[in-house]
Specification:
Blueprint lengths: L1 H22 L5 H24 L20 H27 L1
Helix pairs in contact: 1-2, 2-3
Length: about 100
């Protein structure tokens, strides 16, 4: 169990690196939403590790602090997919006008 929690901790910290790179990418909004989604899952993983460890007993300050952040994952994923479909539709429209 200790090995699994250590692997989850490593994955959560590794998740912060690409999320920061995607958040500050200025090319498309879709990358921003993808960065927010990765950041939300990294925070949710850290929250899960905090709640399943022995820390909530003596340190109750962070208990259920990030619980509602998981509710952001659905709308952020929807916004990301909407941006991707908009980019694909714009690409098809531009390719169609170039052929004329």
């Amino acid at each position: 169990m200790k090995l699994l929690s250590n692997l989850l901790l490593i994955c959560a910290f590794i998740g912060f690196v690409p999320s920061e790179g995607l958040l500050f990418n200025k090319s498309h909004r879709a990358y921003f939403y993808l960065g927010v989604l990765v950041f939300v899952f990294a925070i949710a993983t850290l929250d899960f590790l905090y709640l399943t460890s022995k820390l909530p007993g003596p340190y109750l300050n962070g208990y259920m602090l990030f619980y509602p952040i998981c509710l952001l994952a659905g709308p952020v994923l929807l916004m990301h997919l909407n941006c991707l479909t908009d980019l694909q539709l714009r690409g098809e429209i531009l390719e169609g006008t170039k052929q004329l």
